[in-house]
Amino acid sequence: MTEYNRTTIDPAEVSWIDVYRRLTEVVVPRPIALVSTVDGDGRPNLAPFSFFTVVSSNPPFLAFSPHRAGRSGAKKDTLRNLEVVGEFVVSITTRAIADRVNSCAATLPYGDSEFQYSGLTPSPAERVRPPLVSESPVSIECELVDLHSYGEEGGAGTLAVGRVVLVHLASEVLDSEGRIAADRLDAVGRMGSNLWVGTSETFEMERPE
Ligand SMILES: Cc1cc2nc3c(=O)[nH]c(=O)nc-3n(C[C@H](O)[C@H](O)[C@H](O)COP(=O)(O)O)c2cc1C
After folding, report:
1. pLDDT attached to residue 126
2. How many Å lie between the centroid of ligand 1 and the Cα of residue 174?
3. Would you list the DSSP string of 70-115?
């Protein structure tokens, strides 16, 4: 048996940033939702979120978590938009668009479009107002069902949960049986600090009965 020489971190005794750093270094790899929203005037916004997962399959729900800005505690544009227009689209981040997705994390004035800033192309969704991202092979249209806030300080998260209403899949990433071929999708994820991770190294195990 491995005997680890452990240390401990008590969130009550250290800065939240230290806890954030350790948690984002160990909760890995995290998939990256590229989230489109619109403001009340229909102006689109695009931002990546790695605090992102599936929370229910039947019926299907996704969740991601925009945090209050670290220094100011200000709400991110994505959250401001969700509070006005309760719809979003999650597009999957692939290796081919990783640098453009990263550029969407720039802090732009409210209302300025990261589509224009990053060079990614909006295309109309079918059931919701926020656009799809043409360069991503998978986009998922969602209706917001819940916003749960965990505080108002810098770093406080708000869990945004959305009901999946339509999934768009590019045939280029499907195998002959209609499943997603991981190597064709070539999704990337996030580790701690500025580390990203690819999905080319996979392994298979039989699931126990
Ligand atoms: C790969 C990646 C993942 C990110 N994940 C999150 C996240 O889960 N939550 C968060 O609040 N910010 C996250 N960020 C930072 C936001 O994308 C960034 O603050 C962005 O400017 C928010 O945009 P908005 O103000 O237009 O909503 C991430 C950035 C990158 C590059």
Report:
1. 98
2. 29
3. TTT-PPPHHHHHHHHS-EEEEEE-BGGGHHHHHHTTS---TT--HH
Please state the atom number of ligand 1 nearest to the C-alpha of residue 107: 21
Most ligand 1 atoms within 8 A of CB, residue of 49, 62, 104 to mutate: 49
What mean pLDDT comes out for the span 129-136? Answer: 98
pLDDT at 1: 81
* Rounded CA separation 81/150 (Å): 18
DSSP 37-50: EE-TT--EEEEEES
Q: Which atom of ligand 1 is nearest to the CA of 102?
A: 31
| 206 pLDDT tier (thresholds 50, 70, 90) | very high
125: helix, coil or strand? coil
d(CA 63, CA 146): 9
CB-ligand 1 contact for 65 (6 Å cutoff): yes
Tokens linked to 180: 């997603």
State the pTM of this model: 0.98
- Can you tell me the distance from the alpha carbon of 46 to that of 132, in angstroms, rounded to the nearest whole number? 10
Ordered by where they begin, the domains of the chain are: 16-194 (2.30.110.10)
Distance 35 CA to ligand 1 centre (A): 9
Q: For residue 19, give both structure tokens.
A: 């806890």
Residue 75 in contact with ligand 1 by CB distance below 6 A:
no
Which residues lie below 8 Å from residue 73, measured CB to CB, with a gap of 6+? 152, 153, 154, 156
